[in-house]
Amino acid sequence: MERQLAIRLRGVVKRYGKITAVDGLDLDVPEGTCVGLLGPNGAGKSTTMRLLTAQSIADEGELELLGYRLPDESKQARAELGVTPQLDNLDTTLTVEQNLLVFTHLYRIPRAVRRAAIDRAVEMAKLGDRRDTRVDKLSGGMRRRLLIARALVHRPRLVLLDEPTVGLDPQVRQELWALIDALRSEGTTILMSTHYIEEAERLADSVLIMSHGKAVAAGSPTDLVHEHAGSEVIEVYGPPARLQEIEAEASDHGLRTRRTGTSVSILGVESGNGYAIEGDRRPANLEDVFVLLTGEEIA
Ligand code: ADP
After folding, report:
1. 165 located within any domain
2. Are residues 175 and 252 in the same domain?
């Protein structure tokens, strides 16, 4: 059975003066899936997120969210939507519980189920022993978990996560991934913007790679890797002049390459083409695809 689309964008354009931040974007997010919006800085991810929350209005194109048309029906859409902003806007003078309580009012959760909604959010964020702690006393990771949990108090059908782990250290990032993964297994639909390849590879059922406001590829991480980077890569280290020679040779054999600092990666070596070189063999990954398609190194 075809899944319903939680988000459907067609030909969406958003300009800021001479800059076209989003340039004819199509995006499908099927219900019950986690889609990653992946792209380098300036690709248009945040602008897309702002269009979906109706903080910005598109210049052209169609936007549908949970069956509602934006911007006309944005109020209805927002009621069923959970949003975590990129910037932490928790009230630091309030406790964990009070921050959640404010949102239960905002989302008009009936008094009788307010406590249960807060309990559930606290549980989700694993902040049970911090309920009465003021937010300015929490660690960065705890604040991020609270930020996500706050977006879930009204049990939204769709959650938008804008760079959910930006600026966090790797261990804290792992904790957040576990939280997002739990949300996903509950069947909540998720659209997540990120410039961390690993985050998209781990969490997303499908990924849309953006560059300069456009979608340059879309599909499951596995399919994207298979389609664009093949299955096997040889990585060769050497001085720049040698790397240049290798690039030329590989290109003569119809193989694609990418630079990674002091090495060159030769993609799709499984296809053979009579090409052989000593080096480290590894499976192709989403980072290879990202660099090929966006021309950007990973931050
Ligand atoms: P990303 O989130 O992928 O880093 P953004 O959506 O923030 O990308 O930005 C896309 C492009 O639009 C960039 O060139 C950025 O400078 C520009 N842009 C975004 N917001 C504004 C704004 N409010 N005014 C002017 N230019 C903007």
Report:
1. yes
2. no
List Cα–Cα distances, 95 to 89, 100, 128, in angstroms.
Answer: 14, 9, 12
How high is the pLDDT of residue 287?
Answer: 92
pLDDT in tens, 5-15: 999 999 999 99
Determine the Cα–Cα distance for residues 220 and 206; give it in Å rounded to an integer: 4
- The CB of 7 under 6 Å from ligand 1? The reply is no
User: Does the CB atom of residue 211 touch ligand 1 within 6 A?
Assistant: no
Give the nearest ligand 1 atom to 50 CA.
Answer: 6
Strand partners, 208: 37, 218
pTM of the model: 0.90
Task: Find the domain containing 267 and state its range.
Answer: 231-283
Q: Are residues 168 and 40 in the same domain?
A: yes
Give 98-113 pLDDT, tens digit per residue: 999 999 999 999 999 9
For ligand 1, the distance from its centroid to the CA atom of residue 60, given in whole angstroms, is 17
Q: Which among 246, 237, 228 is positioned nearest to 284, based on CA atoms?
A: 228
Give 65 Cα–ligand 1 centroid separation in angstroms: 22
Whether 47 is in a domain gets the answer yes
Is any ligand 1 atom within 6 A of the Cβ of residue 19? yes
Residue 193 alpha carbon, nearest atom of ligand 1 = 2
**174 and 261 share one domain:** no
Domain count, the chain: 2
